[in-house]
């Protein structure tokens, strides 16, 4: 430690007792009597007679981690070194002045190294929870990492002071606090060895699975449920070329819904493996997820991120409530998965549109897709690339269906399932042109819709065209399916193709027109706009 | 058959408005004899249709002919409409065709 300010002036009128007591602590301010500095005009204090020149006052060097010094009113006022009062985390802000918090570490992040324009660096963060339920993230960089990385342990309580407060980075920091603490070279972190029962171990705010359905994509949330299925771990190639593990689980709760939970990386081998063993031996453990990320690729599902925490059979009231619900009937109630793409609205609230209305009304341009019904006729079916080779393996209770590539001779490889097999499935990916009295448009039809439109399976058509090479018969079938009228349930969404926005229309369901119902619909349309008329 | 004027869509109650003129209607066959068919109109009236029905006759049949009086038609054209038919839709059609939307039909 070095002295930073060798000399400085006295401010104000410190009252000094004459005579002084010997100080045991050598770090105490020394007991020289003072002379006022040349700037002060106050002559209340007498300098010691023999001194001719102003004494320079040696500043105290305060080492960190020492017990608070004994303060006497002697020596200059340097900085107020009294231990800061412990305040609730919720009261922390950059304008606070001195503060100290006493909190339990609820999560400790990995040590991460980075390289930017200023060179190499390292960083780690940990989360704190105090007795009032306040939470805040603490981050350390470079040299500060060395000081504290090994000191911080999850579950222990620390007294922390002298960090700087900056706005929290909401992209990474999901805690309910607008600030984040950054520890510096003068920060203090003291382990509190006495167990403080007033500080909880973890703070959750669980959302019922049914609420996840309406949660925003990429938002973080806590959820708790009974694990009803665990799938094996599969290696996945990530976009950056690195391989990681992935496991899919299903959780069910008392809201009557179930959700898919995707575990990534270490979670697969640790908690994932444990859960697999428990489920395989007939148990249905409770799993609490803290900070899972919502994904809206297929319905809504939850995935782990680096700051996610998993707790198997946690000892909290929600877990107990869930277990009680499960044992007294919840086990047998069927639950609807929110992780399958559901069509909103049944036949009761179908919105009927004509094909030009789709363009004129700008359907598909908002955040969510538009779902409409249109009565139209198939006028053209594209025969190039009408189907793709699909993975037939099951992932959970769904077929994988990812496009597979040929590997070697006569074998197929699926990247997602990381398996090879002899026989692949064939699934429709049909581009169809449909027309009504207002106009026409291209739509894409997948498997079920494709089978309804063509009246046979994709596999049959594939074999006919590519193996038997019977173009005549193939052409006959296609022609025979043209000019049929259907009720198309369409999903309309604008998507980015390269650098232009294009409206993509997918056929979700194809129904033959029921003439009786359709007539009623038309009669209704005709009569409802009559002025002053009684409805029939 | 005289095709110069269109046949008016009628049910039992509307038949009287077109006596002596060409009409068309669908009836649910209740009795069938040689030379005439008895049936229920889409609004529940009993009608008699004279002429030679096709054989076999399905439950529902459309007849086009001349209205003799308020409950009988001399049919010239018979068409089997099968065994299931939405009578209420047809009835509504008849009412519209003789009411608000008459100008579209006659």
From TrEMBL, chain A:
One of its GO terms (biological process) is DNA replication. InterPro entries: Euk_RPA1_DBD_C (IPR047192), NA-bd_OB-fold (IPR012340), NA-bd_OB_tRNA (IPR004365), Rep_factor-A_C (IPR013955), REPA_OB_2 (IPR031657), Rfa1 (IPR004591). It is found in: Nucleus. Residues 27-45 have a biased composition (Polar residues). Its main location: nucleus. One of its GO terms (cellular component) is DNA replication factor A complex. Coiled coil: none annotated. Residues 371-522 form the Replication factor A C-terminal domain. Residues 101-181 form the OB domain. GO terms for molecular function: damaged DNA binding; single-stranded telomeric DNA binding; zinc ion binding. Keywords: DNA damage, DNA recombination, DNA repair, DNA replication, DNA-binding, Metal-binding, Nucleus, Zinc, Zinc-finger. Residues 209-313 form the Replication protein A OB domain. Residues 12-59 are annotated as: Disordered. Heterotrimer of RPA1, RPA2 and RPA3 (canonical replication protein A complex). Belongs to the replication factor A protein 1 family. Component of the replication protein A complex (RPA) required for DNA recombination, repair and replication. The activity of RPA is mediated by single-stranded DNA binding and protein interactions. Probably involved in repair of double-strand DNA breaks (DSBs) induced by genotoxic stresses. This is Replication protein A subunit. It comes from Gossypium raimondii (Peruvian cotton). The lineage of its organism: Eukaryota, Viridiplantae, Streptophyta, Embryophyta, Tracheophyta.
TrEMBL record, chain B:
GO terms for molecular function: DNA binding. It holds the Pfam family Rep_fac-A_3. The keyword Nucleus applies. It comes from the Eukaryota. One of its GO terms (biological process) is DNA replication. CDD domains: RPA3 (cd04479). Its main location: nucleus. It is found in: Nucleus. Keywords: Nucleus. GO terms for cellular component: nuclear lumen. Belongs to the replication factor A protein 3 family. This is Replication protein A 14 kDa subunit B.
């Amino acid at each position: 430690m070095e002295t930073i300010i060798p000399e400085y002036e006295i401010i104000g009128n410190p009252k000094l007792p004459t005579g002084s007591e010997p100080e045991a602590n050598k770090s105490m301010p020394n007991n020289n009597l003072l002379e006022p500095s040349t700037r002060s005009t106050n002559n209340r204090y007498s300098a010691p007679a023999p001194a001719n020149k102003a004494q320079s006052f040696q500043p105290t060097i305060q080492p960190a981690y020492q017990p608070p010094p004994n303060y006497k009113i002697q020596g200059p006022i340097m900085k107020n070194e009294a231990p800061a009062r412990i305040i609730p985390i919720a009261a922390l802000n950059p304008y606070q002045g001195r503060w100290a918090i006493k909190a339990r570490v609820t999560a400790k992040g990995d040590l991460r190294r980075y390289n930017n324009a200023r060179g190499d660096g390292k960083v780690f963060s940990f989360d704190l929870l105090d007795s009032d339920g306040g939470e805040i993230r603490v981050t350390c960089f470079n040299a500060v990492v060395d000081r504290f990385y090994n000191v911080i342990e999850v579950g222990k309580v620390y007294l922390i002071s002298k960090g700087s407060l900056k706005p929290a980075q909401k992209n990474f920091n999901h805690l309910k606090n607008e600030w984040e603490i950054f520890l510096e070279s003068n920060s203090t972190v003291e382990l509190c060895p006495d167990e403080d029962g007033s500080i909880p171990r973890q703070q959750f705010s669980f959302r019922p699975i049914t609420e996840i359905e309406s949660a925003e994509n990429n938002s973080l949330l806590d959820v708790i449920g009974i694990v009803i299925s665990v799938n094996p771990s599969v290696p996945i190639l990530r976009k950056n070329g690195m391989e990681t593990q992935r496991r899919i689980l299903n959780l069910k709760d008392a809201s009557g819904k179930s959700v898919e939970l995707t575990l990534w990386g270490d979670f697969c081998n640790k908690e994932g493996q444990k859960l697999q063993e428990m489920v395989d031996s007939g148990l249905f453990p409770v799993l609490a997820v803290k900070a899972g990320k919502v994904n809206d690729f297929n319905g809504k599902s939850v995935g782990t991120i680096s700051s996610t925490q998993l707790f198997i059979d946690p000892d909290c009231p929600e877990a107990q409530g869930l277990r009680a619900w499960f044992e007294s009937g919840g086990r047998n109630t069927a639950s609807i998965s929110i992780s399958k793409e559901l069509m909103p609205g049944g036949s009761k609230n179908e919105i009927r549109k004509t094909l030009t209305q789709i363009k004129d009304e700008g359907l598909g341009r908002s955040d969510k897709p538009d779902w409409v019904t249109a009565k139209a006729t198939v006028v053209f079916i594209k025969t190039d690339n009408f189907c793709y080779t699909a993975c037939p393996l099951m992932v959970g209770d769904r077929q994988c269906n990812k496009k597979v590539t040929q590997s070697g001779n006569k074998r197929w490889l699926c990247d997602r399932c990381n398996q090879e097999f002899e026989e692949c499935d064939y699934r429709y990916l049909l581009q169809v042109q449909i027309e009504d009295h207002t106009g026409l448009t291209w739509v894409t039809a997948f498997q079920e819709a494709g089978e309804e439109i063509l009246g046979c399976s994709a596999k049959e058509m594939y074999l006919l065209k590519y193996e038997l090479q019977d173009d005549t018969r193939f052409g006959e079938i296609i022609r025979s399916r043209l000019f049929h009228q259907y009720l198309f349930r369409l999903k309309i969404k604008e998507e980015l193709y390269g650098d232009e926005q294009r409206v993509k229309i997918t056929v979700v369901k194809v129904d033959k027109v029921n003439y009786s119902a359709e007539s009623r619909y038309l009669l209704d349309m005709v009569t409802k706009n009559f002025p002053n008329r009684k409805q029939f | 058959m005289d095709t110069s004027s269109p046949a008016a869509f009628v049910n039992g109650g509307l038949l009287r408005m077109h006596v002596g003129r060409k009409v068309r209607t669908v009836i649910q066959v209740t009795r069938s004899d040689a030379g005439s068919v008895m049936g229920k109109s889409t609004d529940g009236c009993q009608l008699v249709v004279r002429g030679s029905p096709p054989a076999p006759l399905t439950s529902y049949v459309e007849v086009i002919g001349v209205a003799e009086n308020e409950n009988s038609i001399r049919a010239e054209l018979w068409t089997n409409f099968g065994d299931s038919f939405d009578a209420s839709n047809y009835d509504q059609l008849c009412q519209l065709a003789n009411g608000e939307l008459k100008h579209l039909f006659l």
